[in-house]
From TrEMBL:
The lineage of its organism: Eukaryota, Metazoa, Chordata, Craniata, Vertebrata. PROSITE patterns: ZINC_FINGER_C2H2_1, ZINC_FINGER_C2H2_2. It comes from Hucho hucho (huchen). One of its GO terms (cellular component) is nucleus. It is found in: Nucleus. This is C2H2-type domain-containing protein. May be involved in transcriptional regulation.
Amino acid sequence: MDMTFSNKRTIGCLRWTLGKPSAEVLQKVRDLFSLDINKGSLLEQQQDDHRAKRSHHCPHCEEIFPFLSKLKIHLKIHTGENLYSCPDCEKRFTTSHSLTVHQRVHTREKPYSCSDCGGRFSRQSHLKRHQHLHTGEKPYSCSDCGKCFTTSSDRTVHQRTHTGEKPFSCSDCGGRFSQLSSLKKHQHIHTGEKPYFCADCGKRFSLLDTLKAHERIHTGEKPYSCSDCGKRFSQRSNLKIHQRLHTGEKPYSCSDCGKSFSQLDKLNSHQRIHTGEKPYFCSDCGNCFTQIDTLKCHQRIHTGEKPYSCSDCGESFSQHSSLKKHQREKPYFCSDCGKNFSRHTSLKKHKRIHTGDKPYSCFECGKSFTTSSALTVHQRVHTGEKPYSCSDCGGSYSRLGNLQTHHRIHTGEKPYFCSDCGKCFTTSSALTVHQKTHTGEKHTNGYTQAKTFAD
């Protein structure tokens, strides 16, 4: 018997010089064939492992890819070669699939829907990420601090807070960013481009995510719900901020005093206490403020605007906090006089009437006051400050109440009337003085005193 193989790697052809091969020869052939297949499988596996471990660096932006094919697709961003263009906005993409997904921006197609809340999405990946909100699942944890995330991309971005890595750089100014989305957002500063517009009101946006968040104003959609209390939000960022109420997390701390905050903008506002910066000023009276919201509330003094109204009684307020205070229950009561209050701090202030406690002192004259606001008003006696001015005649006042009373000279308004004779007055104090003419009570000031002298 003679056995020959025409190829070292594969079994090419067996030439038999004798008749039917024996069982021993057949077994040897089977073993050899099996060995060759196993070698091939092992080789392929080793090659796959080698490819997976190999890193491919982009020479333009330093981004890293595990596979050469991924790098080739990415390189089209830099070279502009073989890109797929959108016929609606001419934006270009590296793959036809990316173009198809993008075109849903124009068609508003959202083929993927959530079985829990009915929310619709243009991408399957967005649906999967959204569903973690319902399940509460956060499968990706940070090895540095243990914080968990719903997506691996969120974890990757978070980990850059530990490493300080900023892999994305702006070609115009050299600014570096930890997220690609942050770079893209930044680049619109240089280009001024706002490619996304709202079909309902026409407002334009530089980012698709900003447009989507804006559109919820029109639809009223609130797809993000809190797993602790069920409260719903139109934006994911607002949900994250809200959840810190339950967790007590305050990730932003002041480098000057160590005080911590749940929101970055709250920290920025707080730090102005240390710097003394007041970047927001009133064009009517020149007063400066540390926060834009405080300025907006202040400007309503000049405009008289009261945008917040009570649905029960119709009374209007210039500040939302004043409306909430008006509508709130009054669970706190004074054990001395039985008066009820909506806030514990208000009760504490009230109790100073009974205790005589005046913790706020004027450093100019030493006079003490029960509240800090009363001290602030008093200090204007020394400074001469009159921040409230009349838009009709220009007269200035140190107190808002005095300005409001003064305005009635121009409007002719007399909201206080006497129940005995029907006479009306601009101030409650004038009414009080007048009412003593009916009771016969002598008064040392005002109207009654003048009448007594006339008699």
